[in-house]
Amino acid sequence: MMRCLDCSHCDLRSKPEMARRGFAICKFVASATYPSTTAQRDCSHFQAAAQETVTKRAAWLQAQQELFRQQII
Question: What's the pTM value of the predicted model, to 2 decimals?
Answer without folding.
Answer: 0.85
